[in-house]
Design brief:
- Its EC number is 1.5.99.12.
- Its cofactor is FAD.
- GO terms for molecular function: cytokinin dehydrogenase activity; FAD binding.
- Belongs to the oxygen-dependent FAD-linked oxidoreductase family.
- The chain is of the alpha+beta class and about 525 residues long.
- It folds into 3 domains: about 1-105 and about 495-505, Uridine Diphospho-n-acetylenolpyruvylglucosamine Reductase, domain 2, CATH 3.30.43; about 110-225, Uridine Diphospho-n-acetylenolpyruvylglucosamine Reductase, domain 3 (2-Layer Sandwich); about 230-465, Vanillyl-alcohol Oxidase, Chain A, domain 3 (3-Layer(aba) Sandwich), CATH 3.40.462.
- It contains 13 helices and 20 strands.
- It has helices at about 65-75, 130-140, 155-160, 170-175, 200-205, 240-250, 315-330, 345-350, 350-360, 380-390, 445-460, 475-480, 485-495, and strands at about 1-5, 30, 35, 55-60, 80-85, 100-105, 110-115, 120-125, 145, 180-185, 190-195, 215-225, 230-240, 260-270, 300-310, 340-345, 370-375, 400-405, 425-430, 465.
- Strand 7 (about 110-115) and strand 8 (about 120-125) form a beta hairpin.
- The longest helix is centred in the last third of the chain and has 17 residues, at about 445-460.
- Mean pLDDT is about 90; it is low at about 1-25.
Length: about 525
């Protein structure tokens, strides 16, 4: 047992509830895990690399019971806050707690158990488990797979469910938040509750997409289905955004069985730039991009539609080619600018892993990443393309510029996630991998470019929302949530009345007594 001692209380002032910083727990708690005091380490940084925030302590829990004990103790303090940290992939310090406690969710034993309930298959998984760990366990061990993924799988289950979790399967199955039937959550009072659509439902829907504001996810029950063996991975190129968007929207609105299993896409620069241009499109090293096939009318930015078709090893290749050929035949991409590759299902889902390894080898993985993620409504996406992709970002960003459609009907509006109005909206993800200054642009310049893009959306009254949002004031958060703000505040008051959870989001300030 490791006691959480009152080491921050002056020896001559044990009766006081708080020191000058108000960060004292005037009691002991017993943990099975460990506590590190007074050092930042990884808990003081994140993937964004733009913040360096010192926590009071880092908790490495042995299990959910430790999480509950720490949160319960914090709830009885005057000013202590708690941040649950998964794999540290946030961009703007969302998983940090200045002079608070950071709970390292990766420290817990990774529960992964495939279960079958009422004819459906699920996997019970700990909140600190990475999706790539879940992939290997489910596919290799049981031949099943979650329906909805993220592009990068080095993220924790609890982390993505606290936001949404999207990738090229979301047009069919919705985000990861739409594929969960049950959660185990530690509330801000230190209570451990099982919740679902029919049990503690307000907590269940509040936590999904709730940015960590209402509880800490320690277990999730995720829907799974039979996993395919192989994937036919295809990329095709467009010169005009309108044609690209028309075909992408056509594919995501087709019924299941009459479309691809994965639909994404990205904008890229019409040049030979090795990172932002033509070389970023081909699949595999044995084929190149022939720019002679680009129409002369093309502008500074081109578009790549990326699709994938799942299949089993026992299916005749001629049948697969016939189905894929029929679907591609309905699209109007540039002739001779099609690239395809057959890979295993696991290899396809781990495609970003290769990018990670390459970035780590060059050191770019550890440089600042001022990424920007937005949802933009269909009525505004053409203007967004004209003003942002073709002007502000016409020279690229040093990494992928994702843009592809999603369907509102696949999202559960009872969760805390906010998205634009209308059935079709687009995810825009600007994923910068720039070398550090002076080899690359200063971080301040890239942040200013993000601000310019957001301001452009505001000025032209686009219907948009930030995904993985970050704002500096509560007024900005109110605008973000819009008509859902009262509900969000109501849930906060109910489940975390003193605002001890997720202080790095900067939505609410720690209060004592509870919010009125």
């Amino acid at each position: 047992m490791i006691a959480f001692l009152e080491r921050f209380i002056p020896e001559n002032d044990k009766e006081t509830e708080a020191d000058d910083d108000g960060i004292i727990i005037n009691r002991e708690i017993e943990l099975q895990g460990s506590i590190d005091y007074g050092c930042t380490g990884p808990a003081g940084k994140d993937f964004g690399g733009m913040n360096d925030i010192r926590p009071l302590a880092v908790i490495r829990p042995a299990g959910p019971e430790d999480v509950a004990r720490v949160v319960s103790a914090a709830s009885k303090s005057a000013n202590l806050t708690i941040a649950a940290r998964g794999n540290g992939h946030s961009i703007n310090g969302q998983a940090m707690a200045e002079r608070g406690m950071v709970i390292d969710m990766r420290a817990m034993n990774g529960q992964i158990e495939v279960v079958r309930i009422s004819g459906s298959s699920y996997v019970d998984v700990g909140g600190g488990v990475l999706w790539e760990e879940l992939l290997n366990h489910c596919v290799l061990g049981f031949g099943v797979s979650p329906r909805s993924w993220t592009d990068y799988l080095g993220l924790t289950v609890g982390g993505t469910l606290s936001n949404a979790g999207i990738s090229g399967q979301a047009f069919r199955y919705g985000p990861q938040t739409s594929n969960v039937s049950e959660l185990e959550v530690v509330t801000a009072k230190g209570d451990t509750l099982v919740c679902s659509e029919s049990q503690n439902s307000e907590l269940f829907f509040g936590v999904l997409g709730g940015l960590g504001q209402f509880g800490i996810i320690t277990r999730a029950r995720v829907l799974v289905q039979t996993a395919p063996d192989m994937v036919k991975w295809i990329r095709v190129v467009y010169a005009e955004f309108e044609e690209y968007a028309r075909d992408a929207e056509f594919l995501v609105t087709r019924p299941e069985g009459d479309s691809f299993d994965y639909v994404e896409g990205f904008a890229f620069v019409n040049s030979d730039d090795p990172v932002n241009g033509w070389p970023s499109v081909p699949l595999g090293s044995d084929c190149g991009f022939d720019p002679i096939s680009i129409p002369r009318t093309a502008g500074p930015v081109l578009y790549c539609l990326e699709v994938a078709f799942h299949y089993r090893n026992d299916v005749e290749s001629s049948s697969i080619e016939k189905v894929v050929g029929h679907m591609l035949g309905q699209l109007r991409f540039c002739e001779n600018l099609k690239f395809q590759l057959d890979v295993s299902y696991i290899e396809f889902l781990q495609r970003v892993k290769r990018v990670e390894l390459a970035a780590k080898a060059t050191g770019i993985w550890d440089t600042p990443h001022p990424w920007l993620n937005l949802f933009v409504s269909k009525p505004d996406i053409a203007d967004f393309d004209r003003m942002v992709f073709k002007k502000i970002l016409k020279d690229g960003i040093g990494g992928p510029m994702l843009v592809y459609p999603l369907l509102r009907s696949k999202w559960d509006d009872r969760t805390s996630v906010v998205i634009p109005e209308g059935e079709i909206f687009y995810i825009v993800a600007l994923l910068r991998f720039n070398p550090p200054y002076p080899k690359g642009p200063p971080v301040e310049e890239l942040v200013a470019q993000n601000d310019e893009i957001i301001q452009c959306c505001i000025t032209h009254a686009f219907d948009f929302k930030l995904y993985l949002p970050y704002y500096r004031s509560q007024d900005q958060w109110k605008r973000h949530f819009g008509k859902q703000w009262p509900k969000f505040v109501e849930r906060k008051t109910r489940f975390d009345p003193t605002a001890i959870l997720a202080p790095g989001q900067r939505i609410f300030s720690r209060t004592h007594p509870p919010l009125s």
